[in-house]
Design goal:
The protein is built from eight helices and 15 strands. By secondary structure, the chain is α/β, with parallel strands linked by helices. The protein folds into two domains: about 5-130 and about 310-335, Alpha-Beta Complex (Quinone Oxidoreductase, Chain A, domain 1), CATH 3.90.180; about 135-285, Rossmann fold (3-Layer(aba) Sandwich). Strands 3, 4, 5, 6, 7, 14 and 15 form a seven-stranded mixed sheet that branches. A six-stranded parallel sheet has the order 10-9-8-11-12-13, sandwiched between helices. Helix 1 (about 135-150) packs across helix 2 (about 165-175) and helix 1 crosses helix 7 (about 290-300). Bound molecules: NADP nicotinamide-adenine-dinucleotide phosphate (NAP). NADP nicotinamide-adenine-dinucleotide phosphate (NAP) binds next to helix 1 and helix 2.
């Protein structure tokens, strides 16, 4: 039986105030916890870096969904780990699991908190179970198909199009027969989204700072589905250019995780356009994950979609990877590989 005496973890050392930076975290080495009856120990292999967790890093954070993080605690994260010691009959040694735990080399888990045993295929790189076949892919699929309900021929706009969720949404909308427009930061990222990811057109803030004008040119008939990861000004601008019966999928609001909350001025448009705006949490659909994963896996196998991933290596790279992801320096899904 493996018995790690010590485990390294990345802990929160200060509540980020504005843009998160690497000095808000530090790497510590601490004694490993016991593994009592009903629990199992994982050796963690990959950390999924998710923008949403930034919401629970600020001072006083915490809501109906998750408690705020505390100074000195390992930073919350979705993790892929392998069971190396078990006192839980459903998770024998050798099981691969995905769970919400923390940026730590070893975790003690009880099978709760988004924990599930993974059935993996040898054909698929393991890290993809933290990206397109993990919570990221689930979020994109659920938000687009269940909430957005696009029809072939419709115009779908995706904000933070080059990020983890956005890069999957764009591909799914495209193979669904939609006209897909992405929004991103730089022209270089926009070019990559058009040439590699498959977006029809991409508006970047760098060369096209006036979003309403740029969008009016690309979508003169209006937007049918808006998949929003950004909120604030971007959401407001799209609200001003909806077609009738539009659907606004509220997946996230990254523009306000590190800055002031911007007012929405175009809400009246929801009335006249008979539009539907709906937020969702991917975790509400946990019972449908196997069928969604099967669908994504077959689309991958047929070459209809790809997993765009950016890997960082070693636990010490985690703060940098997280900051890079938050501030648009990474493309696709940002993952830390531990071994
Ligand atoms: N509802 C759910 O269940 C659920 C689940 C997972 C994620 N989410 C949400 O989905 C969104 C994307 O998450 P992710 O983990 O996939 O992250 P991500 O898209 O891989 O990374 C975040 C991206 O957001 C963009 N961004 C950052 N600050 C911005 C700003 N002020 N204005 C516009 N764009 C900005 C950056 O790309 P650019 O270079 O394009 O600026 C950055 O790369 C987040 O809002 C997250 O909270 C929701």
């Amino acid at each position: 039986m493996v018995d790690p005496k010590m485990t390294r973890a990345v802990v929160l050392t200060s509540f980020p105030d504005g843009p998160v930076c690497e000095t808000d975290f530090s790497l510590v080495c601490q004694p490993a916890a016991d593994c009592p009856k009903g629990y199992f120990r994982t050796k963690n292999r990959f950390f999924s870096l998710d923008a949403g967790f930034r919401q629970w890093m600020s001072a006083g954070a915490g809501d109906n969904y998750l408690q705020g993080m505390q100074i000195g605690d390992p930073v919350q994260s979705i993790v892929l780990g392998e069971v190396i010691e078990s006192n839980h009959q459903s998770y024998p040694v050798g099981t691969l699991v995905s769970a919400r735990t923390a940026w730590e080399e070893y975790s003690i888990l009880d099978g709760n908190d988004l924990c599930s045993a993974l059935t993996v295929s040898k054909r698929i790189p393991l890290h993809q179970y933290m990206s397109i076949l993990g919570p990221t892919g689930m979020t994109a699929w659920i938000g687009l198909y269940k909430v957005g309900q696009p029809r072939s021929g419709e115009t779908v706009v995706v904000s933070a199009a080059g990020g983890a969720v956005g890069s999957v949404v764009g591909q799914l909308a495209k193979i669904h027969g939609c006209h897909v427009i992405g929004l991103t930061s730089t022209r270089a990222k926009a070019d990559w989204l058009e040439s590699d990811v498959g977006y029809d057109q991409v508006i970047d803030r760098e060369t096209n700072p006036d979003l309403p004008i740029a969008l009016g040119e690309l979508a003169p008939q209006g937007v049918n589905v808006f998949f929003d990861n950004v909120g604030g000004y971007v959401l407001d601008a799209i609200m001003g250019q909806l077609s009738e019966r539009a659907r606004l999928v509220i997946c996230g609001a990254i523009s306000q995780y590190e800055g002031p909350i911007e007012p929405l001025r175009n809400t009246w448009e929801l009335v006249t356009k008979r539009a539907r705006m709906e937020g969702f949490m991917f975790s509400d659909y946990v019972e449908t994950f196997p069928e969604i994963a099967a669908d994504l896996e077959s689309k991958l196998a047929r070459g209809e979609i790809r997993s765009f991933d950016e890997l960082y290596y070693g636990i010490e790279q985690t703060p940098k990877a997280f900051c890079d992801m938050m501030h648009g320096k990474s493309r696709g899904k940002c993952i830390v590989q531990l071994d």
